[in-house]
Amino acid sequence: MRNPFTASFGVSPPLLVGRDAILAEFSAALADGPGASGRATLYTGARGSGKTVMLNAAEDLARAEGWLVVSETASPGFVERITTEHLPRLLREFDPKAIQRRLRGVTAPLSAGAVTWDSVERHVVRAGLRSQLELLTELLAEHETGLLLTVDEIHRNQLAELREVATTLQHAFREGRDVAFIGAGLGSSVSDVVNDSVLTFLRRADRHHLGRVRRDDVERGFRVPIEASERRVEPAALAHMVDAVDGYPFMLQLVGSRVWRMHPERTEITLDDAREGVELARDRLGILVHEPALSAASEIDRSFLLAMAQDSGPVRMADIAERLGVTANYASQYRRRLLAAELIEPVGTGRVDFALPYLREYLLAAGPATAGDG
């Protein structure tokens, strides 16, 4: 039987759980028309929290409502890709004759007498982001629908291109066009971007932090795909799997995938299957999540994390400072760095804990090699 779980970053799971309310807000924003809260939205969260999966779900929702979608990642040249690939393709596919009709007599010299399709093609490809967006949304308005633009992995490194996108969207929103935007990235990266003096438009966007998923949703995320594939899972096995996930969306898929592989020919998933699959999933999590998450950690960052790892749960900042032999103020500086990197999270007053599941165990097992050069 085919494995129903998708343990790959950015790949939509068979059942998206725990995010219904956020998607419902976006659906309402599309229905409420231009100016609605939620038509500019940012998703933030730690690695593996499901940011890209949420973009996929929002895009599917928009398409189901008849909207066109442009999906990009904030890597170098993404605005050029939008203006030379995505928008021209949508303009051609949507209504080439209408594009010719609207551009005739505008893009060609008045003495030319006529505008050929070749000249229209060249104009559409060369046009800037704002003019292409205006043209497409005017065509879509005739059909009472709009355009959704999503940008994944938002980061300060692409600030110039993000400024162009934000400025264009700001004009589109002011003009009442049917446009929606969703961006996604690590919390610290998104904060860097929205605090830019030019990107004030994004400061007003709705922001949703994708945290842990509730236990009952995790259970449903396992049980429904398993039963849909005509297998069943022992109650004790299911409980062990849910405990291992700790509300972390990517771990849900890792555990599900590894447990399924234990004995796929059997109808029932047993507790032994669950235990073995969970161990394999934890090893894989270290490679896919912990290792890259720690790649930029300095020596002192790592020392702070190792000092935390000595406790089995939330740790007092005073204890960390004592173990490091530093002042409270000094330890607080690194606390802020690690919070921004979403490696740790505050837990009550004066305490912190690891933001990623099994990071404590990974640090203790891997030793100094997990840190960067600092």
Average pLDDT value? 87
Biggest beta-sheet profile: 5 strands, parallel
The coarse overall form would be globular
CATH class of the largest domain: Alpha Beta
Strand content: 5-15%
Report strand order across the widest sheet: 2-3-4-1-5
**Terminal-residue CA separation:** 47 Å
The CATH architecture of the largest domain would be 3-Layer(aba) Sandwich
Radius of gyration: 24 Å
Low-confidence stretches: 102-120, 369-374
What count of helical segments does DSSP give? 17
The structure class reads alpha/beta
Q: CATH superfamily of the largest domain, called what?
A: P-loop containing nucleotide triphosphate hydrolases
Order of helices and strands: HEHEHHHHEHEHHEHEHHEHHEHHEEH
Q: Helical content, roughly? A: 40-55%
Total count of strands: 10
How is the CATH topology of the largest domain named?
Rossmann fold
Written overview of the protein:
Helix content is 55%, strand content 11%. The chain is of the alpha/beta class and 374 residues long. The chain folds into three domains: 20-209, P-loop containing nucleotide triphosphate hydrolases (Rossmann fold); 215-292, Helicase, Ruva Protein, domain 3 (Orthogonal Bundle), CATH 1.10.8; 299-370, Winged helix-like DNA-binding domain superfamily/Winged helix DNA-binding domain (Arc Repressor Mutant, subunit A, Orthogonal Bundle), CATH 1.10.10. The strands form three sheets. A five-stranded parallel beta sheet has the order 2-3-4-1-5, sandwiched between helices. It has a three-stranded antiparallel beta sheet with strand order 8-10-9. Helix 11 (235-245) runs antiparallel to helix 12. The radius of gyration is 24 Å and the shape is globular.
